[in-house]
Design a protein that fits this description.
Length: 258
C-alpha cells in the first residue's frame, strides 16, 4: 500500500527560537520512502538519529519569530498485518537489549500500577493472545473523545475516566502490556484512516520475532501505518518541542491512500 502525506504548520514565537521536530516518516523496516520534501524556509536544520534508531529528530533554528513548515511524502508500506495470537512472549532473561527497557514504567506509562488488574483480567492468557486481548479490551472500554485530555493527563485518569485520544489509548495499552512483562513502546505514525486527521499515536510490542505495530484505538492496521518515531511514551514522540513560547496559527495533516 502507498500513502501520501501532506503536513502544513504555522507557528509564531516570542523570539528567535530552536525547535525539535519529529514528523518525517522513518526510513525503517516495513516501509519505503519513495519521495519526500521538507520546507522550513530560512531555518537552519541539524538532523540526529531518532530514539531507538528509528527515524530522525530535527533541530531547527528559526531566525525570526515565525515558522512556516510544509512536509510532503509518498510512502510504500511493505509490512503486513499478521495476527498476534500465535506469537509467544520471550522470558525476561532472553529479551534483547533493544526490548528490555520497555518493560519498565515510564513518565506516562505507570505499568507498576496495573500488575494486579492485568493478572486478574488477563492472567489466563499468554504472549500475543494476551496482547490482543488487552488491545481489544481497551478499544471496547474507552471512548475516543477529542479534547477530553491534555498533556498532563496520566494513565490512571484515563483508566478511571474511560475516555481519551490516541495518546491516552497508547499509554494505557503500554502500561498494561508492560505490567504483563511484555515489552511495549509508544510510536507516532501517519494513517489514512485516522479520524480526525492528525499525528497518530500507536504502539509496538516485542514478541518472539520482533516488534509488532498495534493501534489500540482500532482505527488503523499495521499495513496502513507510516511510522515516524518510537519511545517510552508521548514525551519521546512529540512532533514538536519549542524552547520559546509558541502560538499556533494553523496546522493540518492530510494522509491518503495513493
Amino acid at each position: 500500500m502507498r500513502v501520501s502525506i501532506d503536513v502544513e504548520m504555522h507557528y509564531s514565537f516570542t523570539e528567535p527560537n530552536t525547535v525539535a521536530l519529529v514528523l518525517e516518516a522513518a526510513r525503517t523496516e516495513g516501509q519505503t520512502i519513495l519521495s519526500d520534501s521538507l520546507d522550513l524556509g530560512d531555518a537552519t536544520i541539524n538532523r540526529i538519529e531518532g530514539d531507538c534508531g528509528v527515524g530522525e529528530r530535527i533541530w531547527a533554528q528559526i531566525p525570526g519569530e515565525e515558522m512556516r513548515l510544509r512536509y510532503r511524502a509518498l510512502v510504500e508500506i511493505t509490512r503486513g498485518a499478521p495476527s498476534l495470537d500465535g506469537r509467544a512472549a520471550l522470558p525476561l532473561h532472553l529479551l534483547p537489549a533493544e526490548a528490555a527497557p520497555f518493560i519498565r514504567p515510564s513518565r506516562y506509562c505507570q505499568s507498576d500500577k496495573f500488575v494486579a488488574f492485568v493478572e486478574k483480567r488477563f492472567g489466563h492468557l499468554s504472549g500475543g493472545r494476551k496482547v490482543a486481548a488487552i488491545r481489544d479490551w481497551i478499544e471496547a472500554e474507552l471512548s475516543y473523545v477529542p479534547g477530553s485530555s491534555d498533556s498532563d493527563t496520566n494513565v490512571l485518569e484515563t483508566f478511571a475516566g474511560r475516555q481519551g485520544v490516541c495518546r491516552d489509548y497508547v499509554h494505557l495499552f503500554c502500561a498494561m502490556v508492560r505490567a504483563a512483562q511484555i515489552p511495549a513502546r509508544a510510536g507516532s505514525a501517519y494513517g489514512p484512516d485516522v479520524t480526525p486527521q492528525d499525528f497518530h499515536a500507536v504502539a509496538q510490542v516485542w514478541l518472539e520475532d520482533g516488534w509488532h505495530l498495534v493501534d489500540a484505538t482500532g482505527m488503523c492496521r499495521a499495513d496502513s501505518l507510516a511510522l515516524i518515531a518510537v519511545g517510552r511514551d508521548a514525551y519521546d514522540i512529540a512532533f514538536m518541542e519549542s524552547q520559546a513560547p509558541a502560538t499556533l496559527h494553523s496546522q493540518s495533516v492530510s494522509v491518503a491512500r495513493a
